[in-house]
Amino acid sequence: MSWCEYPGWFLGSEVFQNYGCRMAGGLWITTELVVISVVIGFMLAVGLAIARLYGPRWAQMAINGYTTFFRGTPLLCQLFLIYYGLGQFRPFWQDVGLWWFFREPFYCALFTFTINTAAYQAEILRGAIQSIPRGQFEGALSLGLHRWATLRHVIMPQAMILGLRPLGNELIVMIKSSAVASLVTLYDLMGATKLAFSRSFDLTIYLYAALIYLVLVEVIRRIWDRVELRLTRHMALR
Amino acid sequence: MFDKFALLGFGPGGWGLPLLQGAGITISIALATLPFGLALGLIVALGKRSEKAVPRWLATVYATVFRGVPELLTLYIIYFGIQVLLQELWHRLGLPGNFSMPPFVAGMVALGVVLSAFSSEVWVGALNSIQKGQREAAAALGLSRSQAFRLIVFPQLIRVALPGLGNNWMVLLKETSLVSVITLPDIMFITTRANVTTKEPFLFFGAAMLIYLAFSLASAWGVAKLEARSNRGFAAFGGATR
Question: Which residue numbers delimit the ABC transmembrane type-1 domain (chain A) (predicted)?
């Protein structure tokens, strides 16, 4: 018996035991999708938030449009637009040598999730940077710090702490939203569960999947709370 | 190039009318879910703040579960689960034929349950912002607990909760796209079908995006108006209105 069959065996569920390995594989795909997209999305969001606040007028307007567009439409629709819609221009992608990317549902989902979460995270960071009092800027400038140095050493560390909680929420939202990847033929945790159901017609498998998602989300939420408490221990906030 | 856009029109072979109907379904399910989800959320919030351990525990577990499970999974569990349960009941009662779950009801229940879990957080925050003195004064005036809630606490609650509830509404509007997977003919369902027929995915999913975007922008405007209206008595304190 393989290790991934044990949870089902332990809980006395035949279907969970039979499909345990597929679901473990699905959980791994979900993890890959979420971790990669949230990390790359975060890096993009830092740049976007700074350009949104201090960039030239045209960049501000473009970024504003981008965040409004991706925050105002459903993730499912974005995923379909990119997976099915961009696939329509196959000759073009083949010409530019990007067809290998837009052919794979995994890369399409990864790409969609990344640009989606980048939009949300950029808005979170913008709000956090904006709520740093002006005096912090002025103080740093009067000490002779360059604009970039001010941003890097004075503003961003404080903004990150303010953004910690909403960024944690965004991570959790992404874990849950990643379930839509199952609708573009990906076997993530949701996809593997659907497969198990379509073969066994045993509804309890959905409950086990719900339990896995719930445990995942709760564990991350608690770890995040600990991290936040640790990082803000010098502050008199709480 | 331009003949492609005729596919979105109302002429023969145009998908304009189905798309409009889909948009109508999307709005209807969002509007039908809203009162149900918000009312349930308020009940859960009152449960969370209860002095008795059992309702407090139940409400906390309920909110934790439905905030932690993906909406898509909740939708499947409710759609198939209720179907199986009611089917069982149907046969027990000896009724002829089969029971089939209307997708609209399943979608409404699933989205409503998720909305109630999220809005309960907003309600709790708003309830905490009402000072104890308000309830005590109401009791001193001889109002019963339910009267105090209805006449004193609730009207003040709305103002504080409105920004959070507005957020919940925007999330709900986007989540309705998921009901297309249980065959409810909303925007996503119609565009998916149009894509199968016409093989023009970019055009149709792009159109769907623009419809959702229009809904979101209209909602943002509406919520801002409502907030301004609910804050109209508070301008003197500053900050409450722009």
Answer: 27-224
In the chain, the amino acid numbered B33 is: T
CA A39, CA B42: separation in Å to the nearest integer? Answer: 36
**Would residue B123 count as lying in a domain?**
yes
**Interface predicted TM-score (ipTM):** 0.91
Predicted local distance difference test score (pLDDT) of residue B167: 94
d(CA B124, CA B132): 14
| Domain presence at residue A45 | yes
Q: Total structural domains in chain A?
A: 1
Confidence of residue B242 (pLDDT cuts 50, 70, 90): very low
Q: Token digits for A236?
A: 């008199």
Residue A206: its chain B contacts at CB < 8 A? 73, 76-77, 80-81
**Residue A60's pLDDT band (boundaries 50, 70, 90)?**
very high
CATH code at position A10:
1.10.3720.10
Distances in whole angstroms, Cα of residue B223 to Cα of each of A109, B26, B154:
32, 18, 19
Residue A116, domain extent: 3-231
> Which residue range forms the structural domain that includes residue B176?
32-182
Cβ of residue B156 closer than 8 Å to a chain A Cβ = no
Residue A238 lies in a domain: no
Q: Do A74 and B201 touch (CB under 8 A)?
A: no
